[in-house]
Automatic annotation (TrEMBL), chain A:
InterPro entries cross-referenced by the UniProt entry: CoA_trans_fam_I, NagB/RpiA_transferase-like
Official protein name in the record: CoA-transferase subunit beta
One MF term in the entry's GO annotations: CoA-transferase activity
Family matches, as Gene3D superfamilies: Glutaconate Coenzyme A-transferase
Pfam families: CoA_trans
PANTHER family documented for this protein: ACETATE COA-TRANSFERASE YDIF (PTHR43293), CHOLESTEROL RING-CLEAVING HYDROLASE IPDB SUBUNIT (PTHR43293:SF3)
Automatic annotation (TrEMBL), chain B:
Keyword Transmembrane helix tagged: no
Record keywords, A-Z: Transferase
PANTHER family named in the record: ACETATE COA-TRANSFERASE YDIF, CHOLESTEROL RING-CLEAVING HYDROLASE IPDB SUBUNIT
The protein, known as: CoA transferase subunit A
Keyword Transferase among record annotations: yes
GO molecular function terms noted in the UniProt entry: CoA-transferase activity
Amino acid sequence: MTGWTRDEMMTIAAARMLWDGCVCFVGIGLPSAACNLARLTYAPDIVLIYESGTIGTRPDVLPLSIGDGELAETAACVVPLPEIFSYYLQGGRVDVGFLGAAQIDRFGNLNSTVIGPYDAPHTRLPGAGGAPEIAAHARQTFVVMKASPRSFVSKLDFYTSAGFLGGGSAREATSARGGGPKAVVTDFGILTPAEDSRELTLTALFPDTTVEAARAAVGWQLALADELEILDPPTPNELATLRALNERTSEAHRRPVELPA
Amino acid sequence: MEHLSLRQAVERFVPSGARVALEGFTHLIPFAAGHEIIRQQRRDLHLIRMTPDLIYDQMIGMGCAARLTFSWGGNPGVGSLHRLRDAVEHGWPRPLELDEHSHAGMAAAYCAGAARLPFGVLRGYVGADLVTVNPAIRSITCPYTGEELATVPAINPDVTILHAQRADRKGNVAIHGIVGAQREAALAATALVVTVEEIVDELPPAMNSVVLPHWLVSAVVHCPGGAYPSYAQGCYARDNSFYQQWDAIARDRASFTEWMERHVLARPDHKSFLASLGEAA
């Protein structure tokens, strides 16, 4: 198996940040792929929570929605949705929250609500969902999104979920109990917040790209870490596991549904 | 509790202008009931649902709604709800007022509604602009610790409509699988209508699964397949392929209207709707 796509490398880079036994609040799409890849490779005892109320789920195929039957059938338990948000997330029982968004700024704040003014939006996006409280209360969050100057912006159109707000110690002054963004995985590498300013800084590059390409994809003056790590390319096992998972998934999503007569 | 047809239940419990919650988090979404509301041409509804999903996309696109309380308005795993977007971005077919929350905020609002308290409280909306665009989201100082906490007004629908796997003849309702905020939405409402896959003489003992006792239930409607294209655990799976196809159907006003006329308005009931999906165009 040779060659890999940026999407695959993003998923694999996100999966590598998870550890065995960690309790992970999973979103649909790439985060779900990354969490299940971790579970199927080096983190067999990872605990996956989907906001639909399924805890400790072990899906054979990736769900299309956050509440597919596959998640309930393979879960350790299924609890009502208010419990997930108040007892588990707000209660501080989640190690890692995964977030995506349409826009991110240099302090890891996220917009998934509107492009343009709220009352007369150019593009109405799906909205907050679980994100504001995941961003506030997970012990740490990983943000996964593709970079372009339209998505990595100097000023958000709308603040849906808090990262480090205005930077520095601004987040510590709020009622957010979690630590905020630990890393942003994007399609050229990984950004992590600098120690004091909390500004997102390029700390790792994918093996097939350059600092110039990274800078061109970000709408603010991207800071570089003193030591830039070059990430290992996907291993044959990571790629084979991810591709088999994606193949099972697309086959399952095409399967016709039979209604009872 | 009464056993009614879906037509009777909507006639009786869903007048134009009502505050209506069709709950079900991805699972057990009451599609058949939503379609009947469209057929009966209800207008000026205040629709309430955490995730509007395809059913509210359809009701909004058909002009049933004046206001929407929600916390995430997309087609899960696919993308936008195009009819919701068109209503918000262009006022088609009519403007839609938004009362927008996060999931945690809306869950707290349902819990408060079920407990008949005036508001729900949470450590939420931290650094979030939703607080500035939704004046209903406020804050309170904790009388014990002095901490400032977010508050949301209780949600108390005039009617909540759910879909469930089973009811017995007395009207006790059993739900298993993903239960979302159905129980809270049911207990918060003035009236509760439940469509079910099956009506049985006696429910099997169901420890810890959601049972809504008959004296909470206003009406039970026998409606097999009533959650399709969402699903009923143990009865049929979610039609993920249909959710993907909906993106193209709903993207365009004309193709949306044509689909709704052909599959919903031209059909007398849900059975006929389901049969229409297999017919050639």
